[in-house]
Amino acid sequence: MASISNQLWLLFLSVVLLPIFAFAIRSTIENGVQQINLHPKTTVRIYNQLGGYDVDVHCKSKNDDLGNQVLHDNQHFQWDFHPNIWGSTLFFCHISWTNGQGTYDIYKQKRDFSKRCKKYCDWYVTKDGIQGFKQVLDNDGTQHDSEQDTFFNWEPRP
């Protein structure tokens, strides 16, 4: 009797749980290396809305330095990544222009992943400060709009 019970349990694992687990883990190949990811890609986008001024943007994480970017009026900079399984992914950016500067947490997984921007994180650099927009999703999970929910003030230039 124990043998039939073990066989049924094995069948259950292989038919029900294995496909669910396989679906949850996404395998991608980046830079020739296969990577297994539990979370879908997130895209961060930073837009220059200063109206005629350039903005310098330099973003980093613990493991990645995305380099300095100079954004002219109405240009944007974006990057993609998979948030880690520990919930600790953090990207911060030093953003500066003629009348202000500051270093800001642009993607903080504990703040952003479940409530703000599971797929897209949009930031607008304006004369008033840095405006963050969260995704607004339909019932089926499709993004149809975004609304401002975060704001960072400029720090004065030295």
TrEMBL record:
Q: What is its main location?
A: secreted
Output the Pfam families linked to this UniProt entry: Self-incomp_S1
Q: Which InterPro entries match?
A: Self-incomp_S1 (IPR010264)
Q: Where are the transmembrane segments?
A: none
Q: Name one GO cellular component term.
A: extracellular region
UniProt subcellular location: Secreted
Please provide the record's keywords in A-Z order: Secreted, Self-incompatibility, Signal
Signal peptide position in this chain?
1-24
Q: Does the keyword Coiled coil apply?
A: no
One of the protein's GO biological processes: rejection of self pollen
Instruction: Keyword check for Signal, yes or no.
Output: yes
Family in the record = Belongs to the plant self-incompatibility (S1) protein family.
This one is known as: S-protein homolog
Q: Which organism is it from?
A: Vicia faba
